[in-house]
Automatic annotation (TrEMBL):
Name of this chain's protein: Carbon storage regulator
Keywords carried by this UniProt record: Activator
Taxonomic lineage: Bacteria, Pseudomonadati, Pseudomonadota, Gammaproteobacteria, Enterobacterales
Gene Ontology molecular-function annotations: RNA binding
Residues that span the membrane, as ranges: none
GO biological process: mRNA catabolic process; regulation of carbohydrate metabolic process
């Protein structure tokens, strides 16, 4: 999706994840701007990322073992949990990269 600025200081949307803010003739990508958060909050976010990585490390081998040994419903639930953890990691990582 592309939205063009009509006035100075308007946002330009390019796709779903890139936003450009126009200040007169200067263009700055908002994804390059970092938001400051407290050291404690940054630590909580990093802990959540580590826990998510550990969950993925546990779920991936279970999926391989479960393909042959358990019924289809249990396998699909395990697969859904793995997919959710992967999506959560992507979102947490994006947050972590946007905060300093």
């Amino acid at each position: 999706m592309l939205t063009l600025a009509r006035r100075p200081q308007e946002k330009i949307m390019i796709g779903d994840d890139i936003v450009i803010t126009v200040f007169s003739k200067n263009i700055m990508r908002q994804s390059d701007m970092k938001t400051k958060i407290s050291v404690g909050d940054k630590s909580y976010l990093e802990n959540a990322l580590e826990i998510n990585e550990e969950m993925q490390a546990l779920l991936a081998p279970l999926l391989k073992l479960a393909e042959e040994d358990i019924d289809t419903d249990a396998y699909l639930k395990l697969r859904a949990a793995h997919r959710l953890s992967m999506c959560q990691y992507r979102d947490l990582n994006a947050l972590n990269n946007n905060f300093e």
